[in-house]
Amino acid sequence: FPGVAHFHTIRVNMPSGWFYTSDALRTICDVWDRHGSGLTNMHGSTGDIILLGTTTDELEPTFKELTDNGFDLGGSGSAVRTPSCCVGPARCEWACYDTLHFTNDLTQAFQDEMHRPAFPYKFKFKCSGCPNDCVAAVARADMSVIGTWRDEIQIDQDEVKAAADAGLNIHRDVCGNCPTKCISWDGEQLDIDDKNCVKCMHCINTMPKALRPGKDRGATIMLGAKAPIV
């Protein structure tokens, strides 16, 4: 089968939050049309741009043209994998730290470990701006950086009342679904025992106009991988 004698895959380091200009996407596609199959995967499970299928003699020319246009290779195999993050403060009001700049700093600091593996096994960094964890950092990374807060959840009692008046069953859908039962509602006022709050985000997601993360924001760093959620 000479047509599939070579079928190399190239992983390209993606920008933080997967923000591209149309010119950048066109450049990648043009490079790949010249040197490979033209097939892409946007994106791989780690987050990289995946360029599917080329021959051995096209690997170095592809890499050169990508780097000439400001792109770099992503991590694969027993190495540091390309750090990835959610859209963070660029698009999300729940972001508790700047995932975009932090992930870019991680990438710059560990780029050498992606190209010249120094670790004995793969190592994944994933960064989520809040406990909603939109990049599944807790489930899929060896080091997860999850945005959180240290003070009280911000409550707008007028918006709580408006949600109740609009038909939201706060007893059932908010208080009843709180994992630590730290929320109470007497029909007039919502109270949260913040010392027992585990920051699951359920109440905030259910009443986004009424509740917001606290003002004293930062991140929790968790080390140690776990099996993916099936």
TrEMBL record:
<keyword id="KW-0479">Metal-binding</keyword>
<dbReference type="Pfam" id="PF01077">
    <property type="entry name" value="NIR_SIR"/>
</dbReference>
<dbReference type="InterPro" id="IPR045169">
    <property type="entry name" value="NO2/SO3_Rdtase_4Fe4S_prot"/>
</dbReference>
<dbReference type="GO" id="GO:0050311">
    <property type="term" value="F:sulfite reductase (ferredoxin) activity"/>
</dbReference>
<dbReference type="InterPro" id="IPR006067">
    <property type="entry name" value="NO2/SO3_Rdtase_4Fe4S_dom"/>
</dbReference>
<keyword id="KW-0004">4Fe-4S</keyword>
<dbReference type="GO" id="GO:0020037">
    <property type="term" value="F:heme binding"/>
</dbReference>
<dbReference type="GO" id="GO:0000103">
    <property type="term" value="P:sulfate assimilation"/>
</dbReference>
<dbReference type="InterPro" id="IPR036136">
    <property type="entry name" value="Nit/Sulf_reduc_fer-like_dom_sf"/>
</dbReference>
<dbReference type="InterPro" id="IPR005117">
    <property type="entry name" value="NiRdtase/SiRdtase_haem-b_fer"/>
</dbReference>
<dbReference type="GO" id="GO:0046872">
    <property type="term" value="F:metal ion binding"/>
</dbReference>
<dbReference type="GO" id="GO:0009337">
    <property type="term" value="C:sulfite reductase complex (NADPH)"/>
</dbReference>
<dbReference type="InterPro" id="IPR017896">
    <property type="entry name" value="4Fe4S_Fe-S-bd"/>
</dbReference>
<dbReference type="InterPro" id="IPR045854">
    <property type="entry name" value="NO2/SO3_Rdtase_4Fe4S_sf"/>
</dbReference>
<keyword id="KW-0408">Iron</keyword>
<keyword id="KW-0411">Iron-sulfur</keyword>
<dbReference type="GO" id="GO:0051539">
    <property type="term" value="F:4 iron, 4 sulfur cluster binding"/>
</dbReference>
<feature type="domain" description="4Fe-4S ferredoxin-type">
    <location>
        <begin position="188"/>
        <end position="216"/>
    </location>
</feature>
<protein>
    <submittedName>
        <fullName>Dissimilatory sulfite reductase alpha subunit</fullName>
    </submittedName>
</protein>
<dbReference type="GO" id="GO:0016002">
    <property type="term" value="F:sulfite reductase activity"/>
</dbReference>
<dbReference type="Pfam" id="PF03460">
    <property type="entry name" value="NIR_SIR_ferr"/>
</dbReference>
